[in-house]
Amino acid sequence: MRAELSMRYLVAILAALLLSAGAAGEGRAARLKDIASIGGTRANPVIGYGLVVGLNGTGDTDTTTFTMQSIMSMLQKFGVSVPLAKIKVKNVAAVMVTGDLPTFAKKGWRMDVVISSMGDASSLEGGTLLMTPLLAGNGEAFAVAQGPVLVGGFQASGQTGSAVQKNHPTVGRIPGGAVIEREIAFVPSGDMVQVLLWQPDFATAARTAAAINRKVGSDLAEARDGSEIRVRLPENAKARVVEFLAEIGEAEVTPDSAARVVVNEKTGTVVIGRNVKINTVALAHGSLNIVIRERPEVSQPAPFSKGTTVVTPTTEVKAKEEKRKVALMDTGATIADLVDALNKLGITPRDLIAILQALKEAGALQADLSVM
Hints:
four-stranded antiparallel beta sheet, alpha+beta, six-stranded antiparallel beta barrel, disordered N terminus, Aspartate Aminotransferase, domain 1, single chain
């Protein structure tokens, strides 16, 4: 009951927000920097293979061959020669180290990295990552990671097999655990810069080009497709590219979006876009509840009699069908009309998902229905 009321309040709030947005026109304007990025200014993923040491017996087992080979190879670099059969790895875990090289990163900056177990280690808690080069897609090292691993979980087990676990103790982080050794410079290609929309849309691209031209007072921007706008650098801006990009980044654009409904069946989450329309349709939704209850009836003989106790199972079946009203949606009905009709029907989140899917199958939902 509480979940149903919460859903009604959520849907009502969503409807109010959408109505206020519709009353203001197509939508509120956003700064260009908040809906797009400049081509070439992005984070770059890096990855490395390393060892986490100092574990309290929660590392890889002796069957993890690559961990044993890695330990032997590391020891040989320090002049220590140990036969492979003599190496014990219970306090060591082989891991993959991943991270994203920040945009405009400079030498000496630090970045966060994620540590993930590769073998059969049960926990990385209390471990320390040894020096690990982080490689980019071209195979070159751009950063070096090292430091104590922070694990947001734990695992404990007993000798009889009982165990308790919270979160994922085989994955951890090292905040600021990698030092950047190489920079990725941003150099505009020729006399052009690219503006890339995060949500591709032809209308938004056209509006973005027009907004840039209004901002700089010249026809320098041209929309190439639904996601890319090319901007020519004027002669007076070639020596001050940063200032020019900062100027066009403040241009205000009113983004457009396609009508879309996103449904997550696992969590019962439903997000309905502002431009969703409903065709004429009669909507009814009810449910049939069937309850089957079994209980034993005991017949006990009288005292001092030679009878026996008899247990007879009794089954009770009840069926109840809820009566719901039929809601009529006129052509061109908005999301607010749909929300109002569904609230009158007293729907739950699961009911809402089923109704939206049925509306789509009937051709009455004029939107893209995305099921996650």
